[in-house]
Specification:
alpha/beta, Rossmann fold, 2 domains, five-stranded parallel sheet, four-stranded parallel sheet, 9 strands, binds N-carbamoyl-L-aspartate
């Protein structure tokens, strides 16, 4: 243990009781779905994340992250790598599945059994829904879901919520519009669940072909979430506090013709702000294709690059919590 680490107490006396309870519960555990966190816990977790804005100590020295990316990624992989490296840890893994024994037919279970010998925590991104859970069942090491098919992307949701709270000053009683691919987009699916549970009103804006799947809609109704569905972006804009734009998920369409029909369904530019509240923020998990014109980027209301930056703080906190190395 380095002299710096020796000075750090495992659970600092300044943690509040709800923070301590959450930190104890999360230590050594997995993050597979945003549903794992009750609304109160989400708020507490973001308070913990806030503290990591100032943490630079090498808390994760000697720890190794396994970053197993079976699907393309820029932000998620690089921000996990950056977080681990900035806290003094190391990273192994792959971003190109073609370079692995998966091409020889190795199962996900066996790949994980190997990876756990080489690292202390695993982040996995995979095209199949439920793959992160399969990985978690194969190993005692903590597993973080970095996106499984169209299902979930919980760490994206945490950084989205963190951004919303910093920008809007609260996490509840907002009207949040979700625009674009609500059928296949996992970032939207996770955030819709969390934002609904936190007591926000949701406006789901998409072409009919890309509406939120029926099961997810029923879940919102069962939990008494206030939501409406529309195709009409212009009519929705004036009432929104947040507009969460998403990419049409080309890779998840079974039929290329179906994609062609909706690929340019919505394209917004700086003029969208003419009809919006001056405080409305525009978010996007990125990457964007053509759904947000770069003319919007310089506006103080554009929050998408800030989201990407917040991803490092959020992931620094998550890695430290799961690996039980707290400041
Ligand atoms: C998203 C993803 O991979 O689900 N990107 C991200 O992680 N920031 C969104 C997308 O690919 O459209």
């Amino acid at each position: 243990m380095s002299p710096t680490l020796a000075r750090l107490s495992p659970v600092d006396a300044t943690w509040t009781e709800p923070e301590r309870a959450l930190l104890r519960r999360m230590a050594g555990s997995d993050i597979l779905s945003i549903r794992q966190f009750a609304p109160d816990e989400l708020k507490t977790l973001l308070d913990v994340v806030e503290r990591f804005e100032r943490v630079t100590a090498p808390l994760l020295q000697g720890k190794v992250l396994g970053a197993l990316f079976f699907e393309p990624s820029t932000r998620t992989r690089l921000s996990f790598e950056s977080s681990m490296t900035r806290l003094g840890g190391g990273v192994i893994g792959f971003a190109d599945v073609q370079s692995t024994s998966v091409t020889k037919g190795e199962s996900l279970h066996d790949t994980i059994r190997m990876a756990e010998c080489y690292c202390d925590l695993i982040v996995i991104r995979h095209p199949h829904e439920g793959a992160a859970r399969v990985a978690a069942e194969a190993t005692a090491r903590p597993v973080i879901n970095g996106g499984d098919g169209s299902n979930q992307h919980p760490t994206q949701t945490l950084l989205d919520l963190y951004t919303i709270r910093r920008r809007c000053g609260r996490l509840s009683d907002l009207r949040i519009g979700f625009l674009g691919d609500l059928k296949y987009g996992r970032a939207a699916h996770s955030l819709i669940e969390a934002a609904g549970a936190l007591g926000n009103e949701l406006v789901l804006i998409s072409p009919p072909e890309l509406q939120l799947p029926a099961l997810r809609r029923e879940e919102l109704s069962e939990h008494d979430v206030r939501f409406m569905e529309t195709e009409d972006l212009d009519a929705a804009i004036p009432g929104l506090d947040v507009l969460y734009v998403t990419r049409i998920q080309q890779e998840r369409f079974g039929d290329p013709l179906e994609f062609e029909r909706v690929r340019n369904a919505y394209q917004i530019d700086i003029t969208i702000l003419d009809h919006a509240k001056p405080t409305m923020i525009v978010m996007h998990p990125l990457p964007r294709v053509n759904e947000i014109h770069p003319s919007l980027d310089a506006s103080p209301q554009a929050a998408y690059f800030e989201q990407a930056r917040n991803g490092v703080t959020v992931r620094k906190a998550l890695l430290s919590i799961l690996l039980e190395r707290l400041p």
